[in-house]
Each structure stands twice: as C-alpha cells, then as structure tokens.
UniProtKB/TrEMBL annotation:
Function: Catalyzes the first step in hexosamine metabolism, converting fructose-6P into glucosamine-6P using glutamine as a nitrogen source.
Claim: Transferase is one of the keywords in the record: yes
Keyword Cytoplasm: yes
Protein's UniProt name: Glutamine--fructose-6-phosphate aminotransferase [isomerizing]
Primary location recorded for the protein, binned into one broad class: cytoplasm
Class of enzymatic activity (EC top level): transferase
SUPFAM superfamilies: N-terminal nucleophile aminohydrolases (Ntn hydrolases) (SSF56235), SIS domain (SSF53697)
Keyword annotations of the record: Aminotransferase, Cytoplasm, Glutamine amidotransferase, Repeat, Transferase
Organism of provenance: [Clostridium] aminophilum
Amino acid sequence: MCGIVGFNGHVQAAPILLDGLSKLEYRGYDSAGVAVRNGKNDVEIVKAKGRLKALYEKTNDGLAMAGDCGIGHTRWATHGEPSETNAHPHCSDDRNVTIVHNGIIENYLELKEMLEKAGYSFHSQTDTEVAAKLIDYYVKKYQKGPIDALSRFMLRVRGSYAIAVLFAECPDEIYAIRKDNPMVIGVKDGNTYMASDVAALLRYTRDIYYIGDNEMACMGKGEVTFYNIDQEVIEKDVTEVKWDVNAAEKNGFEHFMIKEIHEQPRAVKDTLNSVVKDGKIDFTALGLDEDHIRNFRQIYIVACGSAYHVGVAAQYVLEDMAEIPVRVEIASEFRYRHLLIPENSLVIIVSQSGETADSLAALRIAKEHGAETLAIVNVVGSTIAREADHVFYTLAGPEISVATTKAYSAQLIASYLLAIEFAKVREKITDEQYAGYLEELQTVPGKIEKILDDKERIQWFAAKYANAQDVFFLGRGIDYAVSLEGSLKLKEISYIHSEAYAAGELKHGTISLIEKGTLVISVLTQPDLYEKMISNMVEVKSRGGYLMGLTTYGNYGIEDTADFTAYIPKTDIHFTPSLAVVPLQLLGYYVSVAKGLDVDKPRNLAKSVTVE
Ligand code: F6R
C-alpha cells in the first residue's frame, strides 16, 4: 500500500527520498511524489503518475531539487483515480502546510464541508488534501505551533493515518503523526530518516524508533522528539533491527518472489530453531506457560488472505493433535460479527506485516471481549506485535514480493509448534509422539530443498498452461487448505481466474463449469482421503478436464488418472502443507513469468493492506 519517506540532514534530500521510495515500491503504488525544503524558501513539490522511474526522470534522479529536508510518497489510490493531481504531497494553497499520508480519513467529507465554509477550496479528490488543509486551519486559527495543531487534528479526525508534515514556519523540521498505520524514525550521524516501513531505512541505519498510536514526532537534523496527544514530551527506546540489508535485494534472482521461494528452507529452519531447544519447545519468549495453555477452552484464528489460509491448515492440526476446538475466521468478517467469545479463549492473529487493518481491528476487538491474544507476526515492532498479549515472531526476514511465500511457510511452522506444545501440555500425545513430531519437523527444510531441485518440471508445465482461462484446485482436509493457497498464488500474479474447492463440494454446483481442457489441480497428500480424491478426479476427467495431481512419492497409481503429476517427499500428515504448497507457488510464479507479468508487483495489489 502507500509508502512514506522523510529525510532531514546535511546532504541533498531528494536522492535519499527517491532511494527510500524505491525500497517501498514492492508495497504497490500507482503514483509518487516528493516535497523538498531549501532553507526558508517555499516547499518545492514534484509528482508523477505511474512508476517511480517517471519521478526520477522529472527530478534528474533528485539532483534537480535543492534542499536537505523533505518528504516523499508512493500512492496506492483509495480516494480518487491514480493521477498527478491526486498524488501526494498535498498542501494548503499557500504552501503553509505540506503533507504525505498513508491510510484513510473516514470523516473527510464532513471536514471538507467545514473547511469550504471557512474559505478553503479543493483541487483533488483525496482525503489527504482535506487533512493538509485541516492542519493548516488549526495552525492559523490557534497560532500555537505545529504540535498543538497536530494534536487538534488527531482529536478531530476519524480513521487511520501515518502523516509526515512540513510547516512553512519550521524550515528545519519534519513532523509526523500516526494512528493504526506504521511509521518509524532512524537517527544516524546528524541525519534523521523517516519511513512507513523499515526496509526504506536499512541502508542508512538499523537503530529505529517506533512512533506509537496517537503519538507525534518532531524530526530535527540528527535528533527527534516524541510527544503524546496531550502534547507532553515522551521518551522512547531505540530498537535495533537485525534484518540483513541483503535480504531486501534480489541477489541474482530474477524476481523477489523466486528468491523468497528459495529462502523457505532457511525461514522454516530459523523459525523452528527460535523456539526448539534441546529437543523441546520453549515458549518462554512468548510468555505462554503450561498453565496458560491448559486453561484455554477455545481457539480462534483470525487473519486475511494467505495468513487466513495458514489458519485453515492450523485448524486441522490443532484440532487433530491437541483436541481443542478451533474456529478460523477472516478478519474483515470477524470484526463486524456479533461475537460470542467464550471465557478462556485464545485468539491467534496471523499476519506477516503486523499492520493489516482488519487483522489489527480483530485483535483489538478480541481484547475488548476479554480473550487472550497471540500474534504470529513477521515484522518486529509492528502494531499487531506490540498490542498482542503474546507474540510468536516468524523469522522469515523481510518479504518484498507482494505474493507471500516464505512468510506463509514460516507461519505454518509456528502453527505446528503451537499444536505440538498444546497437545503435549494437554496430554493428548505421548512423549514419543512429541519427540517424533519435532524430529520430523527438522526434516522439512531439506524436503523443501528437494522439491526446489525439481522445479524445471513445474516450469515446463506452467509454460504449457499459461493461457488457461479458468483453473480449479481441489483438496480434502488439510489439502483443501493448501488448495486455497495454491489458487490464490496463481490468480494474484498470473491474473488467471482460479478457485479452490473442498473436493466433495464439486458435485454441488461447480462441476458444471468443467469442460474439455479445463485445468483441475488436485492435491492429495492424505492417505485416508486418497481414494475419495481419486474418485473426484475421475469425475472431472470424465467431463473432459485436464488433471494435474499433487501427491507424495510412492502414490504412482495416480498416473492412471492424472495427466501430469508433481510429487513431494513424504512427511507426517500434519506437515504436508509445508511441502505441497511449494510446487503450487512455483506454478503461480512460472505462469506469471511465462505471461510476462510484473511478478513482484501484481496490478491492484499492495503488500501490506493498512486500510479496510
Ligand atoms: C497473498 C498475500 C495476502 C496477505 C494478506 C495478509 O499472497 O500476501 O493475501 O497474506 O494481505 O497480510 P498480512 O499477513 O501482512 O496480514
């Protein structure tokens, strides 16, 4: 989604702003802009529709803009079409206030009306222009300076935002405010950097301050002061970000997505080893002790997109191993439902970014209902991680490709570990089973490597089916969870219509869509459901469908039915999603490449969905 950068220091700002924006490109955007101050001169604003390249060209790589203090933005349109007029920065007509904004101001129409009555006029369709003019209104009306105006603004608006502001009266300062949208600040060698995502700062500093909800910051050159909404100065600790800078580079791979697919063995191993010590799971860092675990009577898993698919798989594993009831819910539904959360419930929020608006809202609602909350999150210090009662960090490292792969895999591992520990504490498995599960999990990274070694077969198949119009994925039990993810991977980056069905559902309507040549991908890793899956495949075949099977080595009889088969190594039945998903990720990737599409930045999508 939108990205923000800011720089205030002793060198030219615009090239640094552009570099920061280039690190945020992966989040998805349709226009970009920068605003730079050169001492007391007026703010200079340059914007461009489309790719960042256009902004680089317009500013001669930033060199054409003088000044050492500025803000920049990549916009993903919410209010108003992608255009130069709607692109950020936005400013008051006299350039007294210039802002960039991530998020949505929900009551902007009402505020716009109020401002129009006060004599303001508007040129764009955005809520951001309203925000800029409202801040300007408060500065002029109360004459008490930026912090006063910003706190009045925060009390007046509804919605979510991270905003960076340049005030004409403060040429050497940048101000920032945030609510429900991330914003971080780094200080190094007399320079101060700001961004909505740590990835944009890593090149300059690893020492980061997180601005909290309803807090403000004033960035000077090489210094920063934080305020709460009551305008009191607050102290903050620096957090050291341990992510490897190279992790945000392609390192010789053609796309981030294929690089991240190859990083899965490492992501799985690191996540596993972060809590498994001497053959035992240690959740001390999560603050989850045995009494806690014993007490829970119900688990909810709440998330969006692929993270929700992790929840669907985790439900099978937790219920089967730990015999505890689990409900999996889409966060945007959970948050608006009449919730009947029983006592002693644990609500698990799964999120790579830790900033997804619906997942964050679900977390807060769960807490309001008295549930204990656990976040499975990848981004350290993200809002969901900070607000949950317990955090299980996945160690996937920065994920740049919009389509998630390694974070999904790391989330699966986190959910298996929870299931194993819950099962042990609740005495549903023996010590031998416990040891056996952990031993088997250690083999998963190697087995993923093995699948990756055979990727050319999938590449060949993908090239053959790149022109498919509709694709169906079928699975039963935990294989259905994998089908959901395989289908999403394909459609989001290849723009091929695809759907996943619980195989038994096919006959209840969808089978009428199968015609000669329709590609149907069946996932069948569960021995108990194998025969039933084969029957479903035969039904499809007899209607002309073209069948791809995805099963474990040894099930060679499938070749009597399937037209093409991908095999994965055998593992414990609960852990098969970690292996079965890999050929499906590869399929989505290679189809997208064969179609010549923008694999890492698919149209209309954003990496972190911070608005509803
Ligand atoms: C799909 C994908 C999305 C995310 C979803 C949740 O490849 O990446 O479906 O899984 O937007 O995002 P997080 O995990 O950041 O909450």
